[in-house]
Every structure is written in structure tokens, then in C-alpha cells.
Design brief:
By secondary structure, this protein is of the alpha/beta class. About 40% of the residues lie in helices and about 20% in strands. It has 14 helices and 14 strands. Helix 2 runs parallel beside helix 3 and helix 3 (about 50-60) crosses helix 4 (about 80-95). It is globular. The two termini are about 30 Å apart.
């Protein structure tokens, strides 16, 4: 099926075509026509399946008429991390370039003043992390009584990060009559219960997650004693022809420890995790994308949903806790465009692993 068969406007279709896409992914094919009807949606789909465009594209058309009032957004999208929120904002910029929609991004680490000014001008689409949205609401800078469409994205990550009480509070501030789009990579009982309370006769859409990494990923496993993992990683970094590499740790504190160790041994490396100020995270990602920075050590939560088109190597300093995180780290099939290596380092009990993307 082509995008032209989904009911989108000509302007939005032109923006999609400009981005180089002609056929929707399964989640887009199923979700877009339903969202356009105004019906609630319960979607089970992982990051990397194209679900963001599955709600941004129809929202652009649905919000094309009407005008936002000061401090009263017409739609609200909640994301668990600053990076995911920023990527949703980029989606609206890319696909909404032929519309007159206004957007605002409310995330921590950025100026309150700039965000308040944006809200004061009126926004059609408000994209926010829960904490910053509540901060601005309590300051009287945003009112949620005019929200027509709300999106709760990455609900399982919201649960993992302890945001559910904030989500419930925010939902209580919204009008009772509105469309709700609810997405989660997994559907444990807690998430199902939450969705049941938020949705009215939703259309349920499930997309199978990528069960295996892309064929362009060469996977290797190294069994290493726990105390020797850092030395083993340095050996691999020196032996491999690494253009740029992503290194994953399971915990934020381990990210900082590993970065200090690698920097001490002369490697060009930086960290990416949730405790960094937003301007530093943005600067670090820009340096990595441009090739100025060779190695980036990240946690799963900070790296989820990152759009880094060319990565030569992925190294799992820690084995991921969840199987789907492994696929996400080294690249699901639709994301990998060239062959690359992936290595995982694990001790005889845990391990170290790597992946080459060629």
C-alpha cells in the first residue's frame, strides 16, 4: 500500500515524498486511517517501527484548521525522554513544512523563558516530558483545557522511569472529550490497566517487534571476566577499524566510569545519559553525528529513539537486561542501511559484545 491510499492531504503527502518515503510501515498503514477518523488507538509497537509518523502525519492534517490560543495547546504529546521528545518535534517540522502548524517543545535542560514565550504565542502541538510540563502548569504558563488530541508514547518506559503518577495527574487536567493515542513497546498488566482507564473503545493495533537484528550486522560475543572488561574493550577498540562507535552500559553511573577510564587511556570519547544538561546532550550528539567525536558511551534510556544514520560499530559493554534492547542497540532490520559489526562483552557470568555495521 502507498501513502496516497491512507487518506492524507496532498500537502502532507508532498512532505512525505520530499523525505524519500513512498510506502508506509505496518504500524503507519494500520494507524493513520484510524487516527484520521478521530478514534482512540492502543498501539503496541517498538521504537524503530515508524510509529512516530503513524501519529504525526494524521495529526498534521487533523489540526490544519483552527487556531491555538495563548497558553492553550490544541494537542499534547508526552514522551519519557528529552531525545524522544526532540525527535517527535523534528517529525512535525519535517512533515508539517507545508502546513502552518505551530509547535513547542517542553523538556528539561532548556530555558523556561523561551518555552514560556512559545506557549504565550499559542501552539497547535505541544510535545513535552511529564516533569517539565507539570513545572510550567504549576507556574500558570500552560492550560490544558483546549487539548483535542493527546498522545502517550513509550508508556512502558514511562512506567520504568516512574512517570505514571505524573501521567495520571496530567490526564486529569485534560478535557474529558478528546482523542487519545496510546503507544507502548510492551503491554504488561500495569500498562494494560492504565490504557483501559485512558481510552474509550480504542482500535487495538499490534506490530510484531523486530525479532532479530538486521542482516547487515556482524555479531560477535566475547566472554570476559568482570574485572577484565575494560581492558578487553580497550583491546577491541585498538584492534578494530572503528570509524565511530556506540558503547552501551546498563546504568548511568557505569557510563561515567567507563568514559573516564577510556579518556584516561587516550580515547576520543564522551557520555550520553539522562543526568546531562540538554545543551550538553545536544552538543555531544551533534559532534558524534558530524564525525568530530569517535566514541559515544550511552545508557539505554538516553539512547532510545536516537537517529544516528551511520554507525560503524556498536559495543555492548553490558549485556542488556531486556532482549528487545539488544536489537534496538545494534539495529533492527529497517534501520540498518550498511554492514556493521556488533560485539557483546560478557564475563563468564555477564559478558562483553560487539556489532559491526557495514
Amino acid at each position: 500500500m502507498a501513502f496516497r491510499n491512507l487518506g492524507l492531504s496532498e500537502a502532507t503527502l508532498n512532505a512525505v515524498e520530499d523525505s524519500g518515503y513512498t510506502e508506509p510501515t505496518p504500524i503507519q498503514e494500520q494507524a493513520i486511517p484510524v487516527v484520521l477518523t478521530g478514534r482512540d488507538v492502543l498501539g503496541c509497537a517498538q521504537t524503530g517501527t515508524g510509529k512516530t509518523a503513524g501519529f504525526t502525519l494524521p495529526m498534521i492534517d487533523m489540526l490544519a484548521t483552527g487556531r491555538a490560543r495563548a497558553r492553550m495547546p490544541r494537542s499534547l504529546i508526552l514522551e519519557p525522554t528529552r531525545e524522544l521528545a526532540a525527535q517527535v518535534s523534528e517529525n512535525f517540522e519535517r512533515y508539517g513544512k507545508y502546513s502552518r502548524l505551530t509547535t513547542a517543545l517542553l523538556i528539561g535542560g532548556e530555558s523556561f523563558v523561551d518555552q514560556e514565550k512559545a506557549l504565550g504565542r499559542g501552539v497547535d502541538v505541544l510535545i513535552a516530558t511529564p516533569g517539565r510540563l507539570i513545572d510550567l502548569f504549576e507556574r500558570g504558563r500552560v492550560l490544558l483545557s483546549d487539548v483535542k488530541v493527546r498522545v502517550i508514547d513509550e508508556a512502558d518506559r514511562m512506567l520504568d522511569m516512574g512517570f505514571i503518577p505524573d501521567i495520571e495527574r496530567i490526564v486529569g487536567l485534560l478535557p474529558r472529550k478528546r482523542q487519545t493515542l496510546f503507544f507502548s513497546a510492551t503491554m504488561p498488566p500495569e500498562i494494560r490497566k492504565l490504557a483501559d482507564g485512558f481510552l474509550t473503545e480504542p482500535k487495538e493495533i499490534a506490530v510484531d517487534p523486530p525479532a532479530s537484528p538486521a542482516e547487515t550486522v556482524d555479531q560477535q560475543l566475547a566472554l570476559v571476566a568482570g574485572d577484565d572488561k575494560r581492558a578487553a574493550l580497550r583491546e577491541i577498540l585498538r584492534a578494530e577499524d572503528i570509524e565511530n562507535g556506540l558503547i552501551f552500559c546498563n546504568r548511568k553511573r557505569d557510563v561515567d566510569i567507563l568514559v573516564k577510564s577510556l579518556a584516561k587511556h587516550g580515547f576520543d570519547v564522551s557520555a550520553l545519559h539522562g543526568d546531562m544538561p540538554q545543551f550538553r546532550r545536544t552538543e555531544t550528539l551533534d559532534r558524534f553525528r558530524s564525525g568530530e567525536l569517535r566514541l559515544l558511551v550511552a545508557s539505554d534510556v538516553a539512547a532510545r529513539g536516537l537517529d544516528i544514520p551511520r554507525v560503524s560499530h556498536v559495543l555492548n559493554f553490558d549485556v542488556p537486561i531486556h532482549a528487545e534492547d539488544y536489537v534496538h542497540r545494534i539495529g533492527p532490520p529497517r534501520r540498518a542501511r550498511r554492514r556493521r559489526p556488533a560485539q557483546t562483552k560478557t564475563p563468564p557470568s555477564p559478558a562483553l559484545a560487539t556489532a559491526n555495521h557495514a
